[in-house]
Hints:
The protein is globular. Helix content is about 35%, strand content about 25%. It folds into two domains: about 5-110 and about 210-305, D-Maltodextrin-Binding Protein, domain 2; about 110-205, Periplasmic binding protein-like II (D-Maltodextrin-Binding Protein, domain 2). The protein is of the alpha/beta class and about 300 residues long. Belongs to the HMBS family.
Amino acid sequence: MTMEQVVIGTRGSALALAQAELTETALGMAFPALQVVREIIKTTGDRRTDVALSQVAKVEGVLDKGVFTKELELALEAGTIDLAVHSLKDVPTVLADHFAIAGVLERAPIRDVLVTKVPGGLDTLPAGATVGTSSVRRAKQLLWLRPDLEVIDLRGNVPTRLSKVAGEDYDAIMLAEAGLVRLGHDLSKTELVDDVELHFAPLAEEVFYPAAGQGAVGFEIRADDADAVAIVKAINHPATFVRVTAEREFLRLLEGGCHTPVGVFTALDGGLITMQARVFPEQGGEPRTGKAEGCDPLEVAKELFESLA
């Protein structure tokens, strides 16, 4: 790349494009003369909507968590893009040596949201209600909190998922608050979808633990691209970077990927990082939990990993 032009790569979903626009705005403010070119790339996860998300990697022979990043990394490697814009929770915790996560935008809200046809959230769902999600983390926590529910697989972008819960196949679905907010949904109001009134109930992160990196837009670059390093550094949000660094390191120590049923979140108060985690056995049962605090994100992640009980 040159300092006159940067090519950013993004998936083509409405949410991915909204995140690309946020990135372009940040770049424009930091570098008014920089020409930003957008390249839309279809990933394995976008293409294989016929398979449960937890099975796509196995079916396609893609590394765990690589289903939404592989093609973007190939474009980085080929030099057709200079910067890949990711939902950070989709990015593997271990990257090839020639790639790096160089920065992040300021984090959006990290909560998970239950979307229902009746108000009241999780407590008012009737016994046996069907809840749609493609996330094993959400599924495990839902069944831990409400073992009477039936959790079934759900694929598609946000508008598609909202249409599905407005239909008859699901009583509720789960989505990330960050995605809903970035797409312009007002969670304080009901919303009419296909003539059905939908209600949004955000679940407090202290009750329903989010995914590592949830709500963060991350920038992957070629590690030896000094110009890209400088550009990303200028739009990086330091507090968010500290938090997601701790969360991704914890997931790395667990050797966990995107289908590992683990929830983790951090709080940053001044320079003090507080982390909590909930790790579910893949075969069911009570989760292991832990809590740690400190000032170095890598050390706090290590302490949290060692504290799991």
